[in-house]
Amino acid sequence: MDIIKTDREYVAGTYARAPLVAISGAGAQITDETGKEFIDLGSGIGVNIFGACDEQWVSAVEAQLHRLQHLSNLYYTEPQAALARLLCEKTGMKKVFFGNSGAEANECAIKCARKYSADKYGPGRSAIITLENSFHGRTLATLTATGQEDMHVHFGPFPEGFKYAPANDLAALEALCDGSVCAVMIELVQGEGGVIPLDGAYVGQIARLCADQDILLIADEVQTGNGRTGTLYAYMQYGVSPDIVSTAKGLGGGLPLGCTLLGAKLENTLSAGTHGSTFGGNPVCAAGALSILSRLDEPLFAEIRRQSTYIKAQLEGAEGVKSVTGLGLMLGVDTEKDAKTIAAQCLEKGVIVLTAKNKVRLLPPLNITRKQLEKAIRILKGVIAE
Ligand SMILES: *Cc1c(COP(=O)(O)O)cnc(C)c1O
Q1: Cβ 224 under 6 angstroms from ligand 1
Q2: Long-range contacts of 346-349 (CB under 8 A, 24+ apart)
Q3: Where does CATH 3.90.1150.10 sit in the chain?
């Protein structure tokens, strides 16, 4: 079968796919159908957090697969309960809702924020503030939450109750808090928007403003979460305590899993029947996530920060590089050359890189070896300078 031809004929054309037919992988190495090997600096958009087919993750998933694949959330399963406990122990959050994706994690965050406010204050306080250039997902509500005009076409009418503030402008955000707002949702590092970290002081000011007005602070850690930025969650290095944290991507290690972590204020907001998901917290996905989460510890974070420092040192000031932004192993490289051209040329030379807006985006597996990183960065530097 000609995979590319068949895919183009039958799969909806929502992706401008690169010409790579992935067959197998091990760690940060991916092999295509011709046997060509690639070093992966994208990890499936930050999903394969310990790379392809990581042995510990595979055996955790496999063991659960042989036990029970699913029974629905009408019953109890051990992996889901154990994962929820570990997430709460590691974050201090009180409750977890499981879904299957980042968008669903944010949907839950939005619903939960609105219900908290409605329960306490009655109707009329349902608006969510998000930031310009943000990305929160593809469902209608999370697309509306996404602060990018060019994505708000084709699919109207959009749900009401979203307001947008320019990032790093506290006065603009404050002006939107007119009594109609129940939550502020932010990405600590805007990922799809170009790997742009929010200013630390600004994030602290938002947290204070929210606390003063009982507006909930929602951290969308779908991309920044699970060790990616060099701490378990990015908010931990901003010194704030969000009321709600949503995450997905890396949490499942390659299987679909999203979760919404709820802090003390929201501990009892969701009651039976108010929200749900057929697949959410599926025992196989949860067993894999449990194995991953139990390995996200301080020695690993220290290594992530070392690898980050290495990449920055290599690329900052290199020929054709304008700047490097981001935290940990979530980095954006602003280049003189077009980022999409760079990604295509890197692929030809055996290195997978992503793009975000006009930048080259790097989200390597957290356990990429220094040797693999050295080789990949050397190739990337060459392509950028060409
Ligand atoms: C990827 C992403 C989402 C959407 O996640 P899906 O799993 O694709 O639904 C939401 N928010 C952020 C910050 C993301 O990076």
Answers
A1: no
A2: 346/379, 346/380, 346/383, 347/18, 347/19, 347/20, 347/38, 349/379, 349/382, 349/383
A3: 298-359
Distance (angstroms) between ligand 1 centre and the Cα of 380 equals: 26
- Pick 298-359's CATH classification: 3.40.640.10, 3.40.50.620, 3.90.1150.10, 3.40.50.2300: 3.90.1150.10
CATH number for the domain whose boundaries are 57-293: 3.40.640.10
**Cβ of 248 below 6 Å from ligand 1:** yes
Q: How far is the CA of 258 from the centre of ligand 1 (A)?
A: 10
Ligand 1 centre and the CA of 222: distance in Å? 5
Which of 48, 192, 357 to mutate for ligand 1's pocket (most ligand atoms within 8 Å of CB)?
A: 192
> 354-356 and 258-262 as β-strands: parallel, antiparallel, unpaired?
unpaired
Are 45 and 55 a contacting pair, CB within 8 Å?
Answer: no
Q: How far is the CA of 45 from the centre of ligand 1 (A)?
A: 10
Per-position pLDDT tens, the chain of length 386 = 999 999 999 999 999 999 999 999 999 999 999 999 999 999 999 999 999 999 999 999 999 999 999 999 999 999 999 999 999 999 999 999 999 999 999 999 999 999 999 999 999 999 999 999 999 999 999 999 999 999 999 999 999 999 999 999 999 999 999 999 999 999 999 999 999 999 999 999 999 999 999 999 999 999 999 999 999 999 999 999 999 999 999 999 999 999 999 999 999 999 999 999 999 999 999 999 999 999 999 999 999 999 999 999 999 999 999 999 999 999 999 999 999 999 999 999 999 999 999 999 999 999 999 999 999 999 999 999 99
Range(s) of the chain covered by CATH 3.40.640.10: 57-293
Euclidean distance between CA atoms 106 and 226, whole angstroms: 16
